[in-house]
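Lab meeting, item 3. Inverse folding demo.
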């Protein structure tokens, strides 16, 4: 017995050294990510959080603790209207992207054959161009003398240019759908591509029609991709600034534009910081709920 224990001790010590070495390698691998997140996310957010409790006097920040900025956020009707417009726009963009992205992702994953890689490159190709240039191009398309209005007039659908196509929530929605559609296609493609064709064939062998096989096999198994794409589109949409600023016209402001207005035009950084923190908390809550839905859809234990 004593001999067995003596022989086992080096093995236990060797296993302990292996575990410590693995933990060190894991820590070394995570160190760049932790450093990046600490410097470029945690510290700026902490700075904004601290500033949100300060006050402004004669366009200068005064480090006196106050909750007035947060009281103003919840008491200002303009901020609530901007929040409602941001949520409506983000929800509309998310639903529209889901409807448009599903057939695209399904075709690429199941029907494109040798063209799959080419189509995937085509999906991500818009990201090679600056978002400012892409959104600015929509101003040329949607303007009164733009391509869309000229096409509508030439085919006789309207007699004069349609004014609401540019500098309106409609234009903002179109720009956001264009910007975020690839972000919905890619995770959805990954989910659909992981579905084995044999599973769909088995459902059809059991007398399920194409529609029932889609509803009971393909759609449930692609839910993780749908959820991830929806989270991407909604979160980026609710905090988007460039597209509403270039296409929205400034008549109806989204929450990101209110924040920018507080920082740059009013020079009231504490008030802008308080609105930004409220928006950040909403995003974190949405991420927490979405992770729960994602784990349920993917079958992971909660």
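The presenter then showed the designed sequence:
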């Amino acid at each position: 017995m004593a001999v067995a224990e003596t022989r086992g001790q080096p093995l236990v010590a060797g296993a302990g050294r292996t575990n410590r070495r693995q933990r060190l390698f894991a820590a070394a691998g995570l160190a760049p990510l932790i450093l990046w997140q600490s410097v470029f996310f945690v510290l700026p957010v902490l700075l904004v959080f601290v500033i949100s409790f300060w006050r402004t006097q004669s366009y200068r920040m005064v480090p006196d603790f106050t909750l007035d900025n947060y009281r103003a956020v919840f008491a200002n009707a303009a901020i609530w209207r901007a929040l409602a417009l941001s949520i409506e726009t983000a929800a509309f963009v998310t639903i529209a992207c889901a409807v448009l992205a599903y057939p695209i992702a399904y075709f690429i994953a199941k029907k494109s054959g040798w063209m799959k890689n080419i189509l995937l490159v085509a999906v991500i190709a818009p990201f090679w161009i600056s978002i400012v240039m892409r959104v600015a191009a929509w101003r040329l398309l949607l303007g009164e003398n733009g391509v869309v209005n000229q096409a509508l007039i030439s085919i006789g659908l309207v007699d004069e240019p349609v004014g609401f196509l540019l500098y309106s929530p409609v234009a903002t929605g179109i720009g956001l759908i264009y910007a975020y559609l690839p972000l919905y296609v890619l995770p959805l493609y990954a989910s659909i591509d992981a579905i084995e064709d044999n599973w769909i064939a088995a459902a059809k062998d059991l007398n399920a029609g194409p529609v029932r096989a889609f509803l009971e096999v393909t759609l449930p198994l692609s839910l993780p991709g749908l959820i991830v794409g929806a989270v991407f589109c909604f979160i980026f949409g609710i905090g988007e600034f460039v597209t509403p600023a270039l296409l929205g016209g400034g008549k109806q402001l989204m929450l990101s534009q209110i924040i920018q207005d507080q920082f740059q035009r009013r020079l009231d950084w504490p008030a802008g910081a308080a609105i930004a923190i409220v928006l950040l908390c909403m995003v974190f809550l949405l991420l927490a709920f979405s992770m729960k839905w994602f784990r349920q859809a993917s079958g992971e234990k909660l």
